[in-house]
Amino acid sequence: MAYTAGQDLGGLRADLGDLPLGGVDSAGVAWRLMQLDGWDSPDSRGEMQQREADHGAWATPVYLSERPLTLAGVIDAPDRASLEEAMERAQVAASLTDTLLTVWQTTPKQAVVRRSGRPVVQYLSDRLASYSLLMTAADPRRYSTVLQTATTGLPTSSGGLTPPLTPPVTVAATTVSGQADAYNAGTFDTRPVLTIDGPVTAPQILAQMPDGSVRFLNYSQTLGAGDQLAIDTDAHSVILNGTVSRRRFLTTPTGWPVIPPGGAVSFQFRAASYSAGAMLTVRWRSAWM
Questions:
Q1: Of 178, 188, 181, 187, nearest to 234 (Cα)?
Q2: What span, in angstroms and rounded, lies between the C-alpha atoms of 289 and 283?
C-alpha cells in the first residue's frame, strides 16, 4: 500500500523524537502504533506500618513513581532498503539521553523519556517489521505541549497629588501591581520556572496560593543590568546567567511554590528598591497525572 508523507494513519498517534508513530514519515514509511502502555498512570510508592495492638495500619505519604512506557507497533516500508533504514532509526529513537515524547490526544501532552530496556525490532517480511521500545519518564507528570508565560515588573504608582492641597481633594493615581498569575488546567500540580532579569537589589517573590497562604522566595544578592537568575522550583536550583549556582543566596522559609490542579497562583514581585528594568517571568505547563 502506498502512503503519503505526513499522512495520519488513524488510531494512536505519538512522536518519539522525530519518529511519527501512527503516521508516515518523509521517506513514505508508515509507523503503525498499536500499543502505548503506561501512558494512563504510573505506579505509586508508599508504605503501610501495621498498628501494634490495634486494627489497621499507619500510612506513609504516597508519591508517584517514575513512568515506564512501552511503545509498540509495525513498520511498513515501500522497499527493503527503506525498511532497514527505518529499523535503524527506531533503535536510535530509543535514546539513552532525554527525548521528547508527544502523545496527540484531544489535549496533546508530552513527557521527557529515556531508554530503559532493549529495543526489539524484528523483520516480519522484506517490507514489514515489528518494534517494541521501552522508555521511562523520570518525571511522572504528563505536561501540556503549550508553554505558558506571565511577566511583570516591580510594582509602581504614578500620578496622584502633591502637597500643599486645597479641599476638596481628588486623587487620581495609576498603580502597576507587580503581579503575574499562573493557572494550571491539568489534574496534577505543576512546578514553574521563575526568571528574574536585573538590575534589581534583593528581589523577593511572593506566591499567593489558592487557599490564601503565601510562599516566599528571598534572594539576598544584587543582579546587575543584563543578569538573569533562573529559579527552578522542581529541581530546587538557582542559576545565574545559565552557568553559576546561587542556591545558597535564596531562602524559602515557607517552602517551594507549586501551581495546584485547576488552581491559579499569583506571583508578586518585590525588591529592596525600585528598578524600571527589573522583570519577573513565570513559565509553566499544565500537568496531568
A1: 188
A2: 19
pLDDT at residue 156 in the model = 82
Q: Looking at the 3D structure of the chain, how many domains does it have?
A: 2
Please check whether residue 5 lies inside any domain of the structure. no
3-state SS class at 162: coil
Sites in the chain below the pLDDT cut of 50: 159-161, 169-175
131: exposed, middle or buried (C-beta count within 10 Å: 0-12, 13-18, 19+)? buried
Q: What is the pLDDT of residue 171?
A: 45
Q: Check residue 158 and give its pLDDT.
A: 54
Q: Are residue 114 and residue 156 in the same domain, yes or no?
A: no
Same domain for 132 and 154, yes or no, is: no
Q: Residue 59 carries which side chain, given as an amino acid letter?
A: A
Q: Give the pLDDT confidence score for residue 2 in this predicted structure.
A: 80
Q: Are residues 263 and 282 in the same domain?
A: yes
Q: CB neighbours of 125 closer than 8 A, spacing ≥ 6?
A: none
User: CA–CA separation, 252 vs 205, rounded Å?
Assistant: 10
The CATH number given to whatever domain includes residue 238 is 2.60.120.860
Q: Which helix (H) or strand (E) holds 49?
A: strand 48-50
Print the domain residue range for 123. 14-41+63-140
Would you list the DSSP string of 241-283? TTTEE-GGGEE-TT----B-TT-EEEEEEE-SS--TT-EEEEE
Question: What does the pLDDT read at residue 279?
Answer: 97
Tell whether pTM > 0.90: no
